């Protein structure tokens, strides 16, 4: 299709950029950021992932695009590691199902980590529950292989997909991410509050850290803190911004 051709050209022409959204701990300190890809389109301006990730996935372009995202995020982390104010930063990178299940994903990821010179423990890969449908055993195997080298894992969009608790306990995860669809109305919708409470309790009982995304107000933050949530991401702390703007927040 036309957009597919355009995407292919955009990759060659370096039209993609990463924005970074801060992640904050219980003391309100910036611990790092999630990398979020954007397309700097020559005529349409800055295009968000909703406008191209799905097409990149079906066309297979997600493989070179995903490699570019991972490499760029690791190079940014290497720069942050070398600077006092940001030396402790971790970086979270979204990995699509197709990308993760690609045959060479483990080797490629380890090569990127090695070449960028980052501490692998500062790299957190965000996976989604869909991986459990597409290939449980392969997913678990690859996670263990990467974890042996120190790489961490967060389960993104948790609760929105196919959550089988029996798989959850087998995944070598470090963190659960409460999806923003539960956070948005957590103060007004008792069902969302119940889900949030259950996710935190479940995650904690499995020894995981819990990050809430889409936190926009102090009231949401306080409620979530009250039920045991310990890390935050959302407009209350920072929008997705370019690397330099994020550095200013850390200063
Ligand atoms: O960036 P936004 O702020 O609009 O992100 C929307 C969605 O796009 C996110 O939920 C995320 O899962 C997805 N996304 C953002 N960046 C990437 C990326 O680099 N790779 C993949 N696979 N998905 C991404
Ligand atoms: O990968 P994931 O689905 O988790 O990506 C996070 C998405 O959530 C991005 O599209 C990001 O721009 C968006 N986001 C992050 N914080 C907030 C927030 O506080 N409010 C809203 N409405 N969206 C947010
Ligand atoms: Mn994410
Ligand atoms: Na999410």
Automatic annotation (TrEMBL):
Q: Where is the EAL domain?
A: 1-251
What name does UniProt use for this protein?
A: EAL domain-containing protein
Q: Which organism does this record belong to?
A: Massilia litorea
